[in-house]
């Protein structure tokens, strides 16, 4: 069984082989500008988790506070089911789901996609954990994760036939940075990692190891 790091490395190599030089340069430019902007830095270790309720892929409303009554929560924000790096991450967590449960944790994944799109993502990846729909990035904004895509990146996405706005049910072209949090039963964040580079993700084994200590 490969690690998430190995899966991402392989995907990045495929991208370098298949994408035009201009496309690679624009993606790198967008990542660099986002890193340098110092925007959407995310909540940190020691912060209190904001209260929220969101619908899952079937429309059931899930409360973070109710979930924390059953034990700590591993919370991961992803961009959407259209993002291949996000799918690798979600599949990596699915492979480690028993270890998550053994650590006494509940795994929750959140994206700005509509419930229908979230359901498609869950079914496509055969995910057995909670997938929530954060339409308009309401909760992601509480976690200070949201940024606006630059116009040149929007244009490139559209030229590639990728309509992020349609997936999200709006026209704002905003996304959350990929981020992972471990939240203890008191609602305090005990681990936080936020990535400006969408190709960088936290290895699930690392997150589970931290969760098992609480």
From TrEMBL:
UniProt keyword terms in alphabetical order: Antioxidant, Coiled coil, Disulfide bond, Oxidoreductase, Peroxidase, Redox-active center
What positions does the domain Thioredoxin occupy?
A: 43-214
Q: Which residues form a coiled coil?
A: 5-40
Please list the reactions this protein catalyses. Answer: a hydroperoxide + [thioredoxin]-dithiol = an alcohol + [thioredoxin]-disulfide + H2O
Q: What is its EC number?
A: 1.11.1.24
What does it do? Answer: Thiol-specific peroxidase that catalyzes the reduction of hydrogen peroxide and organic hydroperoxides to water and alcohols, respectively. Plays a role in cell protection against oxidative stress by detoxifying peroxides and as sensor of hydrogen peroxide-mediated signaling events.
The scientific name of the source species is Halolactibacillus halophilus
The terms describing its cellular component in GO are: cytoplasm
Pfam families according to UniProt:
AhpC-TSA (PF00578)
Offer one example of a GO biological process linked to this entry: cell redox homeostasis
Q: A Gene Ontology molecular-function term?
A: thioredoxin peroxidase activity
Family membership: Belongs to the peroxiredoxin family. BCP/PrxQ subfamily.
Protein name in UniProt: thioredoxin-dependent peroxiredoxin
């Amino acid at each position: 069984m490969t690690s998430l790091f190995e899966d991402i490395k392989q995907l990045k190599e495929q991208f370098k082989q298949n994408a035009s030089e201009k496309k690679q340069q624009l993606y790198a430019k967008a990542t660099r500008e986002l890193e340098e902007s110092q925007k959407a830095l995310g909540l940190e270790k020691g912060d209190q988790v904001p209260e929220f309720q969101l619908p899952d892929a079937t429309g059931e409303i899930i409360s973070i506070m109710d979930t924390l009554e059953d034990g700590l929560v591993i919370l991961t924000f992803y961009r959407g089911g259209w993002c291949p790096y996000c799918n690798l991450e979600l599949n990596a967590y699915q492979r480690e789901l028993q270890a998550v449960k053994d650590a006494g944790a509940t795994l929750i994944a959140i994206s700005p996609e509509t419930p229908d799109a979230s359901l498609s993502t869950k079914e496509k990846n055969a995910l057995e954990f909670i997938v929530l729909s954060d339409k308009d990035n309401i909760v992601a904004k509480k976690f200070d994760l949201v940024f606006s895509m630059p116009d040149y990146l929007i244009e490139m996405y559209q030229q590639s036939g990728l309509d992020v706005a349609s997936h999200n049910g709006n026209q704002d072209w905003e996304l959350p940075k990929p981020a992972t949090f471990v939240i203890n039963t008191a609602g305090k964040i005990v681990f936080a990692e936020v990535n400006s580079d969408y190709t960088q993700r936290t290895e699930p084994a690392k997150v589970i190891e931290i969760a098992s200590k609480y």
